[in-house]
Amino acid sequence: MFHDIPDSITTVMADLEGRDARDRADGTPRLERLRQVPRDTGRFLALTIASAPPGPAVEVGTSAGYSALWLALGCRASRRRLTTYEILPAKAALARATFAAAGVEDVVDLVEGDFVLLDEPGAVAFAFVDAEKDVYLAAYERLIGRLQPGALLLADNVLSHAEELADFVARVDGDPRVDAVTVPIGKGVLLARRLP
Ligand SMILES: C[S@@+](CC[C@H](N)C(=O)[O-])C[C@H]1O[C@@H](n2cnc3c(N)ncnc32)[C@H](O)[C@@H]1O
User: How far apart, in whole angstroms, are the C-alpha atoms of residue 183 and residue 186?
Assistant: First the structure.
């Protein structure tokens, strides 16, 4: 997977990493910034989605599609599709361009809108939550009933935004339907596994 990343994906990832770094340095307003996961987290996402049981994957919070590119690599390795949700039309437009340029439309579907309102029923084998912090709990409640046995759910920023996400982390940690652990990679990733 990491040893044969297509040039089209490598090129788009490098462009997005450059833009994200500039966003953080030049005072770009928060809603316009890409705010994407660090590269290490991206690799972690690719490995975990490739290791999840068979079945569809969901991402909440696409931005320009950087994390979805890593997830797309894992989707190809594990023969599944990713549906990724982005609420802001401008970000969804960037993501559409990302997916076309990277050539990942064979495994990635973009839905423009609010995941909490648009989410559809159906089993999920992998989920990644990386939206506004006040969306995490609602997204979890939407997803937990859909997670098939052994499914993995990941959520970013649980260390960088520990205070804002305390209720969410407590909810997942205390939920007898999952085992969960915080992985100190990047900004802190909560990793939960749906029990049989
Ligand atoms: C931190 S950024 C996502 C970064 C992306 N995962 C990456 O690493 O490339 C969060 C994104 O979630 C989007 N968002 C926030 N609330 C949402 C919701 N309810 N449904 C879908 N997207 C949402 C925001 O517009 C923003 O683009």
Answer: 9
pLDDT, tens only, 168-182? 999 999 999 999 999
88 lines ligand 1 (CB under 6 A): yes
Structure tokens at 139: 């997204």
CA distance 169 to 99: 31
Q: Is 66 in the pocket of ligand 1 (CB under 6 A)?
A: yes
Q: Would you state the torsion angle of the CA atoms of residues 48, 54, 55, 59, taken in this order, to the nearest 10 degrees?
A: 10
How do residues 18-72 score in pLDDT, each as one tens digit?
Answer: 999 998 888 888 888 999 999 999 999 999 999 999 999 999 999 999 999 999 9
Which DSSP string do the residues of 165-191 spell out, in sequence order? THHHHHHHHT-TTEEEEEE-STT-EEE
The protein residue with its alpha carbon nearest to ligand 1, atom 10, reads 131
CA 18 – CA 145 distance, rounded (Å): 38
Please give the distance, rounded to the nearest whole angstrom, from the Cα atom of residue 87 to the centre of ligand 1: 7
Show the domains of the chain with their CATH numbers: 7-194 (3.40.50.150)
For residue 16 and ligand 1, the question of a CB distance below 6 A is answered with no
Query: Both tokens of residue 165?
Result: 């996400």
* CA dist., res. 119 & res. 144, Å (int): 12
Angle, CA of 110, 21 and 137, to the nearest 5°: 50
Angle formed at CA 126 by CA 114 and CA 48, multiple of 5 degrees: 125
